[in-house]
Description:
The protein is globular. β7 (about 305-310) and β8 (about 315) form a beta hairpin. α1 packs across α13. The protein has an eight-stranded antiparallel beta sheet with strand order 4-3-2-1-5-6-7-8, sandwiched between helices. By secondary structure, it is α+β, with helices and mostly antiparallel strands. Helix content is about 60%, strand content about 10%. It has helices at about 5-35, 40-45, 60-70, 130-140, 145-170, 175-180, 190-200, 205-220, 220-235, 240-245, 255-265, 325-340, 345-380, 390-415, 425-445, 445-475, 480-500; strands at about 80, 95-100, 105-115, 120-125, 275-280, 285-290, 305-310, 315.
Amino acid sequence: MKIRGDVVRLYRNVHSWVGIMAGLFLFIAFYAGGMTMFELPLGNWASRTATLPAPVPADRLSELVQKAETADPSMIANHTVVLHPDETSPSSLMWVVSSDRDHGPARTVYAGLAADGTLVTQTRTPSQVGYFLNILHQRIGLPLNREYGRLIMGIVALLYAVALVSGTIVLLPSLVRNLFAVRLTENLRRMWLDFHTLLGVCSLPFHIVMAATAAGFAFHQPIMALEKTLFLPAVSAHPPQKNHSHQGDRPQALLEPLAIVDAFRKQVPGLEPDALAYSSRGGKLSLHVTVQDAAQISRRPDGGYGEVNPYTGRLISTDFLPNHQKPAFQALTLIYALHFGTYGGWLIRWGYAVLGFGGAFLFYSGNQLWILSRRRRDRSAGLTEDSFGTRCLSALTTGCMIGCISGVSAVLAAAPFLPEGGHYQAAEALFYAVFFICLTLAACWGGTKSLRPLLTVAGVLTLLIPLTDMTRSLTSGEVTSLAASVDGVALVYGVVLIVLALRKSPHRGTEIRIPVTS
Length: 518
């Protein structure tokens, strides 16, 4: 394909400058975003020091709920019955006693039955380490509140889309010739360009989806207003059902959990209930029956749900129930699922994680290309040292990107010894302390000189993850497959970082490639 040279140069300049402005933020978003694919397992790994009440058999769920209500009548307004307890939801019954929407998992009571039938409870806050990584991803590394963080994230997402379009146009004339030509034997700039091109083109559909959906989430308020305008009439077409479900045919007592499950199975064949989530809205008790099915597309990472009358067991709404939605809501669910990877099970989640870390490397390589190009231009102009702009971007690239890696590793390494696996405020404070220390050192020493020391720090902090976790395991006498997986990945990644920091670079004054895998 032929494109005029002046057009290619224009789009190359647009791609470079837009990429530079957004690259640092996007590195953090993609690095932390890759880890959000494992938010729930990481949270469970961090908080597994607590011994929670053992799950009860399904035929004793009603007994458990009745005894919990007797002990704490307020729990009935906001409780969850877990039908299939696992590492993420380890108790059969839990309810929230206090919550903070901006700071992750709420303080929760976990309930079970002892051998003699007495109620056993434990109150704690689940680890917020995984939630913090999710918020770090959403706010692209900026310590701002939800409103302003999302606004800036939306602006960066739009710049990200511009960079994708302009980069594709620049590449079109030489796409076939250069796509798979990774030249490792030529100069460093050519090597970075080949890697950047190959990674960008191969993951282009993923990046288009991420840019479009991230902008949509950032500007969700006007989008939700449009959604209500377009789809609310279809939802409100059956108002008698919802009103009737809470008034006309409502018995005095809630149906037992197993009766709810049986009624749900009859109305929605093929979907197995996973939990019964009760909540109070406007003084009326509502019930969401959640389902987990890897073969279905869900709008939320924790699965889909159907709204059920808790007194009759009748299905009220299927707006968020996988494979039972109206076409309009199914289209919206697809958009959410494409961003969060809530389809296809763990294979898709691992794929999204790899693409996320690959995206982080894409932005790092883009910054390296700009730095090397500016250095070559500086030398052509007769300068013996880097210009001010080159030094600034080099320091920001090293400080921000290695600071992000170091900060995340520090949070995970400290989690086993933080109270309840790490509250949000503790994780946030530790991350930004490490991040700004790395950024300060890079600014003082320069991006090139600080690279090896900071890379060594990142490697050491990553190696501390399995060390601190094994210390906890030895203390508690509990070793799980999840812990072994996290420790094994961290050990390999830490060793790779240390090796890269210690090896000699064949190119003087150039940067070292940083792997961005979890």
